[in-house]
Amino acid sequence: MAALQAVHVCDVPNLDQVPENAALALCYSRFRAGVNGEETCKCKISKFLVMGHRGSGMNMLQSSDPRMKSIKENSLLSFNEAAKFPIDFVEFDVQVTKDDYPVIYHDNFILHEQNGAIVENRLTELTLAEFLSHGPQKVPGTMGKPLFRRLKDGRIFEWKVEKDAPLCTLEEAFQNVDRSLGFNIELKFDDLVVYTEDELSRILKAILKVVFEHAKGRGVVFSSFQPDAARLIRKLQSTYPVYFLTNGGSEIYTDVRRNSLDAAIKLCLDNGLHGIVSEVKAVFRNPGAVARIKESKLSLITYGQLNNVPEVVYMQYLMGIEGVIVDLVKEISETISDVTRVEEGEEDSLYGDNGKTQAKAKPQFSSDELSFLMKLIPELMVQP
């Protein structure tokens, strides 16, 4: 097994760059998901999952790291690039257009330039045709309205990446993405909008229609930061697992269900959800919550820029966290080795009592390396 290669805090100044030689042998075991004939949730999960964030990684246009501007996020190109590596899922954001088509896009607003000025439109107020008119078009060599992006701090960047790609629909993803990949479908809603039950139901039913018509055995997981969307998607179907997304209190919302890991546990238990996807910093700030989540028979997966540091991922494996959502798909997936091998037919069932996993090997680290791991994470957490 490869020895631990240290990633010093000074080498990761903004957490949007990770050294190319960052390496750590981690556990990896392929995840397979499916549904049974009775359309009840039945997903088998190994000890550790890797999911590609928005495909092969999100775009950070302000980053000096070229890997964060390599391939257009949330595109068919990005999803299929991620499939080249030993990962289990791609995570992506789904919204529904004004004419009820589920499309894959992260931001609430689409920005383009027209007559020298930036024009901003809410995605859900556009038709499918209007949405697809932005960026590269499906006809090779043709370009629609040039896309821009507004950051949280207000800065606007032209959306330039090394390998650009057209915007796409959820149906196109099911039809054109490598079938080895499961889909973690984030149900995307605007935090500043108050949604009625009827509005949520209309949106979720449009998404479910596409999933049921086109999934054809592909592993699918739903997740959402919107508590009522998570609750309702669970009520509307029992085929696919539903996870509640939370930043665990990093930001405070008027909806108290969003403000802590314990509130997330309660929401899941009250509504029959299957697990939590938490910002990784929240887990390290409140490690006792991991035990409470497991005692509640819920699964725990994490997201966040810290997941691009292999040592941080390894610590989560040791803590019993089931998986991570990462941007640096190549780097993280390639540092994962078969620490845990699962015998055929003995995968651990996340939503049942049958099956068991058998550890075949354990990573070997010196006391100095383990000490480094324990010191690294608190230091990284204070980074902006």
TrEMBL record:
<dbReference type="InterPro" id="IPR017946">
    <property type="entry name" value="PLC-like_Pdiesterase_TIM-brl"/>
</dbReference>
<keyword id="KW-0319">Glycerol metabolism</keyword>
<protein>
    <recommendedName>
        <fullName>glycerophosphodiester phosphodiesterase</fullName>
        <ecNumber>3.1.4.46</ecNumber>
    </recommendedName>
</protein>
<feature type="domain" description="GP-PDE">
    <location>
        <begin position="48"/>
        <end position="336"/>
    </location>
</feature>
<dbReference type="InterPro" id="IPR051578">
    <property type="entry name" value="GDPD"/>
</dbReference>
<keyword id="KW-0378">Hydrolase</keyword>
<dbReference type="InterPro" id="IPR030395">
    <property type="entry name" value="GP_PDE_dom"/>
</dbReference>
<dbReference type="Pfam" id="PF03009">
    <property type="entry name" value="GDPD"/>
</dbReference>
